[in-house]
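Schema walk-through. Below, the input block comes first and the output block second. Nothing else is stored per chain. Lengths vary across the set, and this one has 144 residues.
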Amino acid sequence: MKNLLAAAIFVVAGIIVTTISTSSLEIQGHPSVNKCVGECYANYVAANGNIVDQERAKAEAAAAMSPAELGKTAFVSCQACHGASAEGGVGPQLSGRDSAFIVEALNTYKASGTRGAQSALMWGVAGPLSETDIAHIGAYIESL
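--- output ---
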């Protein structure tokens, strides 16, 4: 009986493995929407450029942006605590502060310094910021 049960399990496992390995993971009877080859790809490249063109355009757009505009982009992750317009929330209000204050505060947090009760929370936020990111965030806050 044990041999028959083991053989049945082996056969069922073989069928499952074969089915999974030969399946295309597409739903049968439905068109594939995940493939863009041939004419589809040519149309996409004609409308959007290839990946190199797209990256070049993004770099050129970023180079044309002011520090405050770049800071607004970087500030997106700050909005959860400091509010969409830096009006405060879980974290303190930042609008109305000058760039020097923001830069000094972020650099203190980046160095794991303490500025208040929630400093430990800010260490992980400020740690990965570059000097340029910090300057841009300061410029954005000052522009509010």
